Amino acid sequence: MSKGNRIKHTFRLPPDLSRQLADYAGRKRVSQASVVEAAVASFLSPDGSERMEAAFSRRLDRISRQMDKLDYHVEVGNEAVALFVRFWLGLTPSMPDGESGPAMAAGEQRFQRFIEALAQRVERGQRLANEITQNSS
Length: 137
Fold this sequence. Notes:
Elements: H1 15-28, H2 32-44, H3 46-91, H4 100-124, H5 128-136
Helix pairs in contact: 1-2
């Protein structure tokens, strides 16, 4: 950017953008004209769009890997629940009407122990997916 000959340009900015420009220039202790000049130069730079595209591509790749990992964990969770329900339905006999009260109370206690054990696993960072990966190696 040559500091010699300059051509004056007059343009209007929306009030919020004008405030942002003034705030930025004030924080950086530079003139608003130099901020606008640098922004226009960056925008018009032939490699500027390539750099931006490369940055977006890297971000999209990272997001895609995170989504794949999330998909894997959801699939493992769904399969674990489905497998548990299938075994539970196959092994648990129906209760006669008179025995359902004590069975419900015992079930509630067992459920509370399950919730406590689950909370402890989560706090320690133990994950079913990690155990599956370790056992399949």
